[in-house]
Design a protein that fits this description.
Layout lengths: L11 H6 L3 H13 L5 H6 L4 H6 L5 H14 L4 H25 L3 H8 L2 H34 L3 H16 L6 H25 L4 H8 L7 H14 L2 H11 L8 H38 L8 H12 L1 H34 L5 H17 L4 H15 L1 H11 L2 H4 L6 H31 L1
Helix pairs in contact: 5-12, 5-14, 5-18, 6-12, 6-13, 6-14, 6-19, 7-16, 8-9, 8-16, 8-17, 8-18, 9-16, 9-17, 10-14, 10-16, 12-18, 12-21, 13-16, 15-16, 16-17, 19-21
């Protein structure tokens, strides 16, 4: 029941034979699982998948939606950020569990258990979501480069494309090098916003109150709320996490599998807590800097130029550095997820450079058509939120089935919590559709 398919995981023997970082990481983890190792260094061998997945929780789409939310509504939408992050923790943990227990990723399990028409429909929706994801990530990094180094936006897009392709080539050395680099970029983003919190005059009491007080002021606030959820709990991250864990550390028995799940859950909580704090910091920074005197700030470029006279060039530069780190890391992870989704659903794999080139096209089209880049980022997050229920419902079904998960199937409490999270997203999306249709009919 728990034996991974040979074509779905990395060969552990080949990895262990390597003297690379990946080989040493696997050897350390196996020693810990066997009870021969302990301490912080040993446990660090299990860290990586959730850190990579957490990049999706602080990508450039988050910058766009969070800046607009903070500038226009102050701290009023902080509760949405907190709720989205809690839902994200649960579903990333379930995704990791699916990969650890079955040795397969969510796309592969869907292909095995759903009818072919359903699988093809899921693949199409997931590919659209992947393209929307890459649009946000690719554009965000390019905007940061263009503003910081005063280069044309298309040139910045080319630079981001080259850098992300270089990072993707590290996959030939195993999983560890790219985990460490992505982890370094995540740390840079978190450090940048820690610095911003010392520079920006945040009203901490008001922020704390609004973080736990649900409110939606108007239709635009609803659109931003859906965008925040789409930018936080992302479809490709739900798919990807199961792929990152499916063969990373093979377990020999139930006891080792339970240890892996325990380590995975801890990493998910820590990594996504950091990502959640970064998101809340984005909203608080935008609220403190823009809400009182510049509530119309809705673009990343405007935010940068407005921050400079308000808080100084240091705050504005730190903001752009975090945006560039976010764009590069999330674009890399998005391409990884796109490859895994395609291979899992239809068993087809294309060269990384082809996928990287193809997924760059929508961003160049947006720029060529003169579409506002930040508006495109926000709308891409709304598309992601509408696509999100597909992997969420699938994951909920599979992790609750005894024939797939055995003794590791969801408990009743987990099932109820996951169903609640899915219902919240479906409800918000339903409201958005009703409001949008009403506005179109009124127009």
């Amino acid at each position: 029941m728990f034996r991974p398919s040979p074509d779905s995981i990395v060969e552990p023997a080949a990895v262990v034979r390597s003297v690379s970082l990946t080989g040493r990481t696997v050897a350390t983890a196996q020693a810990v699982l066997a009870g021969r190792g302990n301490g912080a260094f040993g446990y660090l061998a299990f860290a990586g998948p959730a850190v990579i997945a957490s990049v999706a929780y602080m990508d450039p789409g988050n910058f766009a939606t969070n800046i607009q939310a903070g500038a226009k509504y102050g701290y009023g939408l902080l509760w949405v950020v907190l709720l989205a992050n809690l839902i994200g923790m649960l579903f990333q943990a379930l995704s990791a569990k699916l990969g650890i227990v079955t040795g397969r990723n969510l796309a592969e399990v869907s292909r095995e258990h759903f009818p072919r028409p359903v699988v093809l429909a899921m693949w199409v929706v997931s590919e659209v979501a992947a393209m929307a994801t890459d649009l946000a990530e690719f554009l965000g990094g390019a905007i940061g480069l263009a503003l910081l180094f005063r280069m044309p936006l298309p040139f910045g897009m080319v630079v981001v494309g080259i850098v992300t392709y270089g990072l993707l080539m590290l996959d030939s050395f195993g999983f560890r090098p790219i985990e460490l680099i992505i982890g370094g970029l995540v740390s840079a983003i978190a450090l940048c916003y820690l610095v911003e919190m010392f520079i920006t005059p945040v009203n901490w009491l008001s922020a704390a109150v609004h973080a736990v007080t649900p409110q939606i002021a108007d239709a635009q606030a609803l659109l931003l709320a859906v965008g925040i959820i789409g930018a936080t709990v992302m479809p490709h991250a739900v798919y990807l996490h199961s792929g990152l864990t499916q063969g990373r550390m093979p377990a020999c028995n139930h006891a080792e599998r339970r240890k892996l799940l325990r380590f995975s859950n801890r990493e998910v909580v820590i990594a996504l807590a950091v990502a959640g704090l970064v998101n809340m910091a984005m909203v608080m920074m935008a609220s403190a800097a823009f809400h009182a005197g510049h509530p119309d700030v809705a673009e990343i470029g405007t935010a940068y130029h407005t921050l400079t006279p308000l808080l100084g060039v240091g705050a504005a530069s730190v903001f752009l550095l975090s945006l560039i780190a976010s764009g590069v890391s999330s674009s890399t992870v998005g391409t990884m997820a796109g490859q895994m989704i395609m291979q899992g659903f239809v068993g087809f794999r294309i060269p990384v450079w082809v996928r990287r080139a193809v997924t760059m096209v929508p961003a160049f089209v947006v720029v060529a058509l003169g579409v506002n880049a930040t508006s495109a980022l926000v709308m891409s997050q709304v598309v992601l939120s509408i696509a999100l229920p597909v992997p969420m419902i699938s994951l909920l079904i599979f992790t609750s089935r005894a024939d797939i998960m055995g003794d590791f199937r969801n408990t009743r409490l987990t099932l109820l919590a996951a169903a609640f999270g899915t219902a919240v997203i479906l409800l918000l999306n339903g409201f958005l559709i009703v409001v949008t249709c009403g506005e179109l009919c009124g127009a």
